Amino acid sequence: MNREPALRHPLLARLAEARRTTDELFDIVRPEHLYERPIAERHRIVFYIGHLEAFDRNLLDGRVFDLPSANPEFDQLFAFGIDPVDGGLPTDQPHEWPTLDEVRAYTKRIRDDIDARLDPVEITKQPVSTDEADPATLLEVAIEHRLMHAETLAYMLHQLPLDQKTGPALAHEPASDPAVRHDMVRVPAGTATLGLRRESGAFGWDNEFGELQVDVPAFEIDRYMVSNGDYLKFIDAGGYANRACWSDADWSWKESAGITHPAFWIRDVARGAWKLRTMFEEIALPADWPVYVSHAEANAYARWAGKALPSEAQWQRAAHGAPLAADGNFDFRRWDPSAVQAHPENRSAFGVEGQFGNGWEWTSTAFGPLPGFEPFPFYLGYSANFYDNKHFVLKGGSPRTAACMLRPSFRNWFQAHYQYVYAGFRCVRD
């Protein structure tokens, strides 16, 4: 049995690294606060400690090897997250969850059992079960699922009060150009390629397959993402009170929820200024960082500016030729955004900058299937459960997005009214 780290299969090394990433994230939270629910629409933090290991157990059991359950009740309890879209929020109380010792014992047992069986497994692209899953693909799913949670957990922990977590003392880069010159770049008519060919052999999630060629007419797009400074002009102009800027559904949401500003902004009433809540502190609002907002807020700004959000095909077309810069703001390198103009080396063939990393970017495209969509047989609801015209496609990536998911075909999605994603936007004009 080969347990030399340097000689193990690369997927096993990636799994170990992904585990370290999520373990370190949970360590940010002071133990007495692991039963908090920082975002009302999500489970309590303790759920995710159990979920990551339960997911791996439920995915691999019977497909790569037999994995007897040490606790079938926990396997079910920690199986699925939640994403309520109709106003129904979870009401469970902390005392209804297992103790932290019980959860830790459960997760340790799963890791130990999986690792003992993975080492001797031949990791191939050959199916080993009736649902035609192979060990390599299933390990890719386990790794990327965990890395996705490493990002979405950051959204959750970001909303946790500062005194409930620990973190490094951070020295933030000063705003280098508060008045970013926001010109638009012309993108000529051409073809955008969405998705992947099934026969490519590349790993992708089920919604990525079904390559689609889209003819895109010429358009203009912002060179940079919309910054905090840009968005402040919208707020100062009364954008949140201007009914004309909002769709009916978005206005209803904003009014009923009492939304008056981005979720990451804090009003410093005494000084008459805005501050930004970062993961570990509150700082003066950096004017040239990208603004992080919901799809509804991004769409309202675009309408106010006389523009629109790009379609998925327009965004993809604009990104043609963009390299993934080695020093870009992604792959857990920073907790915070960089200035929108900070990565000129990440420039597309048309001069659009910073499309990969630094913040996901909302599109106007409702999340849906590409041609010939087939759900993963071992994860039937991963995409299909969200083809509901209530979730919208995001492209690019954020500072907390793993590098492997910056591939051009990757399609992220969230509800239009969810404010907590590290997501911004840029606008287009025909």
Explain what you see.
- It comes from Caballeronia glathei.
- Residues 15-152 form the DinB-like domain.
- By secondary structure, this protein is of the alpha+beta class.
- It folds into 2 domains: 5-164, dinb family like domain (Four Helix Bundle (Hemerythrin (Met), subunit A), Up-down Bundle); 184-429, paralog of FGE (formylglycine-generating enzyme).
- It has helices at residues 10-26, 45-60, 72-77, 100-118, 135-158, 228-236, 248-257, 295-304, 312-318, 381-384, and strands at 184-187, 190-194, 212-216, 219-222, 265-268, 273-277, 282-284, 360-366, 391-395, 412-415, 423-424, 428-429.
- The model has no long low-confidence stretch (mean pLDDT 92).
Which properties best describe this structure?
single chain, 430 residues, alpha+beta, Four Helix Bundle (Hemerythrin (Met), subunit A), paralog of FGE (formylglycine-generating enzyme), 10 helices, 12% strand, CTDL_fold, EgtD_Methyltrsf_superfamily, oxidoreductase, Sulfatase-modifying factor enzyme domain-containing protein
Short description:
The protein is α+β, with helices and mostly antiparallel strands and 430 residues long. The chain folds into 2 domains: 5-164, Four Helix Bundle (Hemerythrin (Met), subunit A); 184-429, paralog of FGE (formylglycine-generating enzyme) (Alpha-Beta Complex).
Question: What's the topology here?
Answer:
Layout: H1 10-26, H2 45-60, H3 72-77, H4 100-118, H5 135-158, E1 184-187, E2 190-194, E3 212-216, E4 219-222, H6 228-236, H7 248-257, E5 265-268, E6 273-277, E7 282-284, H8 295-304, H9 312-318, E8 360-366, H10 381-384, E9 391-395, E10 412-415, E11 423-424, E12 428-429
Parallel strand pairs: 8-11
Antiparallel strand pairs: 1-4, 2-3, 4-12, 5-6, 6-7, 8-9, 9-10
Helix pairs in contact: 1-5, 2-4, 2-5
